[in-house]
Amino acid sequence: MNEIMLPTPQRKELEKIFKVSRMTIWQALKGRSNSPMAQRIRKAALEKGGKEFINA
């Protein structure tokens, strides 16, 4: 799964929106989790200007 790069202020905003830990956000954006919550976090991150990068 591809990684999504998102600046820290937007990451903190996602923590508050979804009421999850920093680790949950990290796992979702790094592609380490593909749970329904992770999918929602990834979608919101892209909507907030996150950039998706292909993992080699």
Break the fold down into its secondary structure elements and pairings:
Elements: E1 3-5, H1 8-18, H2 22-30, H3 36-47, E2 51-53
Antiparallel strand pairs: 1-2
Helix pairs in contact: 1-3, 2-3
What does this protein look like?
The chain is mainly alpha-helical and 56 residues long. The chain has one domain. The protein contains 3 helices and 2 strands; from the N terminus they run βαααβ. The protein has a two-stranded antiparallel ribbon. Helix 1 crosses helix 3. The longest helix has 12 residues. It is globular, with a radius of gyration of 10 Å.
For the record, the count of structural domains works out to 1
Q: What is the mean pLDDT? A: 95
Largest sheet: 2 strands, antiparallel
Order of helices and strands: EHHHE
Q: Count of DSSP E strands? A: 2
Low-confidence stretches: none
Task: Report strand %.
Answer: 5-15%
| Number of discrete helical segments | 3
Query: What gross morphology would you assign?
Result: globular
Biggest β-sheet: strands ordered side by side in the sheet:
1-2
Helix content: 55-70%
Q: What would you report as the Rg, rounded to the nearest angstrom?
A: 10 Å
Structural class: mainly alpha
From the N-terminal CA to the C-terminal CA, the straight-line distance is 10 Å
Oligomer: single chain
